[in-house]
Amino acid sequence: MKILIASIFLLILISVSALGSADLIVEDLRLKTDVIEPKESYHYMLYLKNIGDEPAITRLPVNIWFLDIHEEPLFPSSLTQVLTGREITSNLPPLNIIKVDGTEQMVSAVYEENHIYLAPAESFEEIKKRKDSYMIRAESLSYTPEQIKNDLKEIETIYSQKHEQTMEGYYLQLNPGETVIFDSENSYKEFAALNFPVGELSINQLEVKIAVRVDPLGEADIVKENNYFSKTILMQPNVIQGPKEETTKNRELNDANEYFAFAMGCTNIQSREICVYGDDPNIPDEEESLIISVDGVEESYSWYGLFMAWMYKTFGDGKLAPTKTVNGVDVSIYDNGFKLRFED
């Protein structure tokens, strides 16, 4: 009987979806700053549009990540949810929706405890996990073999195709042709700001690729081919050249021959190859080391020694080791990076 009811429900939903469907895309992601510094957080405006021919009832689930640095998250964040804390509220900050005619309207998402949507068919692995979970419960409750057989068949029938699913969250309706704008600055305690990476050691600007995928689990959008968006942004170097006063990012740099860096990797400075890296963790050693090299000439620093110098403030002023000359370049290590002085 359950299978019959589920099949009728699916037929109704499929027949409706055949007439039209919602189709969410990412139009743009715009950072609310002109200059991007490594290790800093910035707010952004995310533009999501329904280009389908049916309304999308959505909690705006998205994945946002940095390509080549992080993996795509397994589960998306609901943009409506991050507008508030964990407590259920009716005073959710409104979102700006741009209508088809260009007018704008502020709309607040509404909380639904059991929102029903048509979920896509699950993979073989996902169905197997459901069956394994069911069998643990069935064995503990001493189900009969006949009941187990019927229930496993029902699991296979329902979840191997599009099926009814429930979700809790804050939902809004985005009509065909409308665009909703999410401003991360309105998120709860500004939680949704993007935390930019340090990047590989470079005296030049770095390219950072931001990726966004809207509705990755198909909650409101059955069209999956156009849900992905990426954008390349230029980030300032993580090697700072003097002269420059001391800041939270760098020590004082007296002239153009002094540099301060706070990343690992290799870069060319004044026609010299500077590399910063750790020793190979696969090679047994007495202790792990930080290695700084100049044109292949290496100087090693014990991580343990640097930590103890930091803890006991051995050298003062945040310095973690005595200044050493490495192949003609003076190297000083601090608690927030390392300073290089080249010959005049």
Structural features, described:
The chain has 344 residues and is α+β, with helices and mostly antiparallel strands. The protein has two domains: 2-121 and 161-235, Immunoglobulin-like; 239-341, no CATH class. The chain contains four helices and 23 strands. α2 packs antiparallel against α3 (145-159). The radius of gyration is 28 Å and the shape is extended. The model is unreliable at 1-18 (pLDDT under 50).
| Overall shape | extended
What is the helical fraction, as a range of percent? 10-25%
- The number of domains is 2
Radius of gyration: 28 Å
Report the strand count: 23
CATH topology of the largest domain: Immunoglobulin-like
Question: Could you give the distance between the termini?
Answer: 86 Å
In the predicted model, the low-confidence regions spanning at least 5 consecutive residues are 1-18
The CATH superfamily of the largest domain is known as Immunoglobulins
Quick check: average pLDDT? 90
What is the N-to-C order of secondary-structure elements (H for helix, E for strand)?
HEEEEEEEEEHHEEEEEEEEEEEHEEE
Query: Helix tally?
Result: 4
In the CATH classification, which architecture of the largest domain applies?
Sandwich
Proportion of beta-strand residues: 35-45%
Indicate the structural class: alpha+beta
Largest sheet entry? 5 strands, antiparallel
Strand order, main sheet: write it out: 1-3-11-7-8
Given this structure, which CATH class of the largest domain is correct? Mainly Beta
